[in-house]
Amino acid sequence: MGERRFCYRCMEKYDMNQHICPHCGFDDNSPHNPMYITPGTVLHDRYMVGIMLNYNGEGASYVGYDISTGCKILIKEYMPANFCTRVKNKSTISVNYNNLAKYKAFMAEFTELNRALAQLRNNSNINPVLDMFSESNTTYAVFEYINGQKILDYLKDNAGELSWEQVSKLFPPLFTTIGILHNAAIIHRAISPDTIYITSKGELKLSGFCISAVRTVDAGLEYELFKGYAAPEQYSANSSSRQGSWTDVYGLCALLYRALTGCMPVDSASRLKNDDLCEPAMLNKNIPAHVSKAIMDGMKLNSNERIQTITELVTRLFEQPVGQKSNVRPEKKVMPKSAPPVANENQGYTQYPQRPDFSGYQEQPQYYPPPPPSPLPPQRRPRQSEPEEYRYEKVSTVDKIKVPVIITILLLAILIILAVFIMRVFVPSEPPQDSFVSRNSSSLSENIVTDESSSNEISATEAKPDTQMPDLIGKFFSYTEKKYIDYFQFEAIYEYDDENEEDIITYQDIEPGTQVAQGCIVNVKVSKGKVGGNIPEYKDMTVAQYENELKKAGISNYSLVASSSLWGTPNTITQLQVDGKEVKAGTYYSNKDDKQLIIYYLPENAEVQTQPTYDPSYYVTTTYTGTNSIATTTVSGSANSTTTAVAVTTAPSVVTDPPEVTDPPPTTMTNPPATDPQPVWTDPPATIAPPENPGEVEEW
Prior knowledge:
Shape: flat
Oligomer: single chain
Strand content: 15-25%
Strand order of the largest sheet: 3-4-5-6-10-9
Number of strands: 30
Helix content: 10-25%
Structural class: alpha+beta
Radius of gyration: 45 Å
């Protein structure tokens, strides 16, 4: 058997002389997207990359092969296409410098998410993370390859739907797994038939984990939502649309809706306009009523009215419903009453009706002795525990009007207080006439502000601590502020720092792990970048390239000014100045300096005069042919050599001085100015052969 190679789709080996895999039919000549990794690339000296399976705003997923263990794997690469691109024919990623901060922030969240999943690798219902590593300017996560089919395909193979008995046996491990994820502060946000697999053993596997920005509209990355299964709050990045465990409850209930009814639920974005979602029991009468009601409560559009946790959802689904009364009562061997008692007004006692016949013969009517007369009014008889001497107290007239009078007085007091408040707010008061009164008024207002601030501090201190302060040091402030906008208020102080790059948090006044009240103020210090650096060389650079060099050098306090010069190359730097004085490359510049670095440049659309580059290596040779009025001029140099025949009146035989070369103007342009532009040499006419004894003069 000849040499064998891997199929980049199924990762099985086949003969090298074949181009189509006999196992899966993949053609190795199939083109691939150059934006993503070329199949056959080996990462981390261990993992061979196959074809790309899918991609989204976070990155791409590839089928792979672990050379060390000989197993098929899944490789996820962090590569947000909005912020970066791939170097041609390489696996290295090139990041747009303007988006570097966002690129790093989202990459940190990608790493944190997969690190948390790696700690749950013992859970059989989660696709485990096997390895993580950084390479080619990005981060990779290696997962176990799932040998199974999507639950969507499984439903299609089972007539499109499942019974509640099947669901109640198949889904409980998945419910437990999602609850464990929520306890670990992981929200999936993409529970759907496309992200859940079922293995040959009948186990459900949850996949499709992504950072939150990919599962939310307009959150900074290209979003990916599953229609019909995404919660309403995922369609907005506003702070009011908070996401949490209830977000996964919506997706899980939508999945149950699809599994039990065979119909995909109406998209939540459409339901916000017109909510016409049918209850599951209306589509499938075999669904228990309490299950149908729990699913609808888990898919409510208002997140506050929705079932909040997986535990509550499981309780609603599997707990026997209570409060339902049976219409059939057990038989009692007691004598039923045939009719209510009737009062006999003539005899003054109550007459009880005839008892029903149980013995087969008609019983003669019997009467029971009347109860003793009651000394109380007929509307109320005394209880057995009450003495017979008990009497109702008579209510006096004062007691009858006391309560209404008190209520009226309270209402009048409230109205008076409101009237005084409105007068003070809307009616302007007269300004104080005396300076002493003015001083007292100002001091009083200051005392009021202080009291309010102190009361705020007391309320914040006495508030119940319900939030744990995270560790913010080393994280990007712009991303952190958006992430915790619902929990804290940040007060940032920006300082230059040589040890940290721009937008990095270097200090927080509340220690990590401290229990604080939600909404408290957190004071942080944020790096503005390096203090300064040496000014880089700008020769042969465009304006954009030079700006990147300035940022690499740590110089951020600069301004670009269009130059009015007529000489040079468009879109290049012409001069550097600080406080009106020219500075050279290599000079140290501090961003704290009050005098800004001014960078003069030529715009791309500037109309400039170009001049051939002066080259002292070329020389002009003029040959005169005797007394004939013919002269031959030869221009020689490193670039070209031309010969031109010119007719002249006389043939002077003198040697002229070489042309004077003036110094270039005090700019950085390579082309020196001249009074008259040098002639542009064109293709010469046919050369006239000189006579045998020409006279020759060289001009330098």
